[in-house]
Write a structure and sequence with these properties.
about 5% strand; glutaminyl-tRNA synthase (glutamine-hydrolyzing) activity; ATP-binding; 3 helices; single chain; mainly alpha; elongated; ligase; transferase activity
């Protein structure tokens, strides 16, 4: 597949990138170079190769999932304009 100048202009418009007319040939060449790299990747045999999440095998650190309040109630309520009995106090909005 080859990208011509009109296709490069269309891609630039879709990407909302202003490209001058005299820069379109260079942009089309860059697109063609990128497509060439993709074609090279398609030639690689990946049959039986499992996907990797990292270059080195590693196991994620795990911790027990325990619900707690974080012991930061005083810090959290420090900047509250009105706090009562360990909670934010807000004006009543429903009568």
């Amino acid at each position: 597949m080859s990208i011509d100048q009109s296709t490069a202009a269309k891609v630039a418009k879709l990407a909302r990138i202003k490209v001058e007319e005299d820069a379109l040939p260079a942009l089309a060449d860059e697109f063609n170079t990128i497509l060439g790299f993709i074609e090279q990747l398609n030639e690689v045999d990946v049959e039986g190769v499992e996907p990797m999440t990292s270059v080195t095998p590693q196991r994620l650190k795990r911790r027990e999932d325990v619900v707690n309040d974080g012991n930061q109630q005083d810090k959290i309520l420090a900047n509250a304009p009105d706090a009562r009995e360990g909670f934010f106090a807000v004006p009543k909005v429903v009568e």
